[in-house]
Amino acid sequence: xxxxxxxxxxxxxxxxxxxxxxxxxxxxxxxxxxxxxxxxxxxxxxxxxxxxxxxxxxxxxxxxxxxxxxxxxxxxxxxxxxxxxxxxxxxxxxxxxxxxxxxxxxxxxxxxxxxxxxxxxxxxxxxxxxxxxxxxxxxxxxxxxxxxxxxxxxxxxxxxxxxxxxxxxxxxxxxxxxxxxxxxxxxxxxxxxxxxxxxxxxxxxx
Length: 206
Hints:
By secondary structure, the chain is of the alpha+beta class.
């Protein structure tokens, strides 16, 4: 695993110097937001229909959303290649709004989730860095999964109070692929299907 902390801490120190004294979590959020802005600038982040195919990547990610006939399309998506400046990581999220203001809720959650998750992942990774030196591969995989699980829980618990979801809301389905680890998290009725292509070109769920 590539250590992200050196880059992240350097970026955080630069933000701290520019903006004066801030709390550690504020600095982390600003650093994560700066990484998101840089990813958009380098065409590594997509938040509408299209494709993402990074220059240094073997990944090809097509995305498409078709609005229904009920009114405003409330589907939002985001794909972030090289998530957090990690070449082996990708973040994908689909948010399906519901209710009269669902499209606004979905857009807000789409905007906040990736950088908030990235910041929480980095904080959790730093707190659990000793556990990553486990002896077996199974222990290492479980530790990586638990770090993502803690990061997701913290991210969504932080966002929940800031969104008035009495009349409107959104589902959230997000996927992080880090090397050979795939972490899928969902809230609501959206689901992911892991599939492969058969010999005749059809998708087959695993």
